Inverse folding.
């Protein structure tokens, strides 16, 4: 139960959704786009969020579909995590998405909600960053397409009221060799202490991680170290740790030092997986 | 575009029947099922999406009703709660394998097991655990619960 009266709106299309958002904002009433709702409902109950108006966009057709053609897979932002896993278009996606929440909750969490919500983990973004996919955003003047690397810096930089509509993933890279590791504090179902994905594309290792920092990260300078053929494995690990460890966080799930050690081990295992 | 504010009448297809009740947009499906539709088999646990005591099926998929607003449910969507599951095999397997202790979590586990068996009547251990990891038993009766599911597979 959300402990205040709200207005709930079901727009028919993107134009209506955006107009409603803007109208409520003008009235200084707090609107939120609503998809799976898992975060908004629980955060509102706890008093972390206080929405006045929820705009339910999950029934807008283009946001609900997975389309596969010869070159690309297009995923609507309101497709649920389980729908993506069950579509089995890529083991990289299936494996890295199965760690998120639990099976029942994954029937409601959507990929767009996971990336644009308040929680810092945003685990679904790891393969999207690695493949540097394209994102379609509905903004003033219609739908525009961006490379994720151009609009992601700790979080997705979009304007208030804009709607992420689709993620466009190049199909040819989806069978790449990968290494995924997700560590949790105690129970299997929990937020990650660290969650990492490595994918080898055209003989180069790409890496993204979340959980260890306060935001998800893919950093090409880290990948340069990973792929530097003049460095031995231990040298690569030490260089990367030196560069990234100041950003590592401590919280009740794990200390900074513990996270650093976990990451060292993961780097070692990943490099062994790809043959050093 | 549909706008919902204040009280309004909403139709639910629940356990094979159509019911109309007055709701407000801020009410969770869990509260509406229990307090307005009078189906108290769906339990209030954490109300935070962690415990699974409130698990129901929407169009055959298990979901936690504490994380869903009742207003979200479409007119064509089918809700199934523990009261609507007439599967004696599952209930008997839980009794025979002592798949419960205090019983508070049991309806959530049975609803989830029902969804699992509908999806795959011969699930492997990995799939069983993937489904049942969504539910918590504070009495820690997991062994009996897993045995109950395995008994169903053997049958």
């Amino acid at each position: 139960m959300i402990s205040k009266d709200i207005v709930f709106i079901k727009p028919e299309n993107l134009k209506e959704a955006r107009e409603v958002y803007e109208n409520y904002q003008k009235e200084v009433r707090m609107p939120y786009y609503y998809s799976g709702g898992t975060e908004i409902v629980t955060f509102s109950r706890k008093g972390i969020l206080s929405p006045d108006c929820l705009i339910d966009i999950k029934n807008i057709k283009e946001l609900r579909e997975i389309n596969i053609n010869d070159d690309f897979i297009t995923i609507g932002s309101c497709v649920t995590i389980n729908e993506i896993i069950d579509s089995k278009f890529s083991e990289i996606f299936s494996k890295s998405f199965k760690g998120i929440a639990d099976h029942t909750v994954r029937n409601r969490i959507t990929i767009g909600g996971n990336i644009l919500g308040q929680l810092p983990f945003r685990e679904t973004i790891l393969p999207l960053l690695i493949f540097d996919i394209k994102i379609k955003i509905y903004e003033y003047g219609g739908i525009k397409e961006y490379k994720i690397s151009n609009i992601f810096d700790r979080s997705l930089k979009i304007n208030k009221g804009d709607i992420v509509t689709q993620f466009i993933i190049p199909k040819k890279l989806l069978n790449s060799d990968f290494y995924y590791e997700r560590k949790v504090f105690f129970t299997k179902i929990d937020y990650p202490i660290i969650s990492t994905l490595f994918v080898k594309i055209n003989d180069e290792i790409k890496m993204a991680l979340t959980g260890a920092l306060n935001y998800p990260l893919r950093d090409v300078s880290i990948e340069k170290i990973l792929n530097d053929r003049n460095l031995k494995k231990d040298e690569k690990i030490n260089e990367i740790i030196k560069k990234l460890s100041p950003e590592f966080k401590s919280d009740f799930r794990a200390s900074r030092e513990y996270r650093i050690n976990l990451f060292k081990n993961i780097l070692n295992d990943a490099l062994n997986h790809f043959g050093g | 575009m549909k706008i919902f504010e204040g009280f309004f009448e909403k139709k639910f297809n629940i356990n094979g029947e159509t019911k109309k009740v007055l709701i407000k947009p801020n009410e969770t499906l869990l509260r509406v099922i229990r307090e307005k539709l009078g189906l108290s088999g769906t339990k209030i646990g954490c109300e935070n999406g962690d415990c699974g005591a409130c698990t129901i099926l929407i169009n055959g998929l298990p979901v936690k009703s504490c994380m869903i607003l009742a207003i979200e449910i479409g007119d064509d969507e089918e809700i199934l709660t523990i009261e609507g599951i007439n599967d004696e095999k599952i209930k008997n397997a839980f009794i025979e394998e002592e798949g419960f202790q205090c019983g508070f979590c049991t309806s959530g586990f049975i609803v989830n097991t029902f969804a699992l068996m509908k999806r795959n009547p011969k699930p492997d251990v990995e799939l069983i655990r993937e489904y049942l990891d969504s539910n918590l038993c504070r009495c820690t009766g997991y062994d009996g619960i897993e045995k109950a599911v395995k008994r169903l597979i053997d049958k």
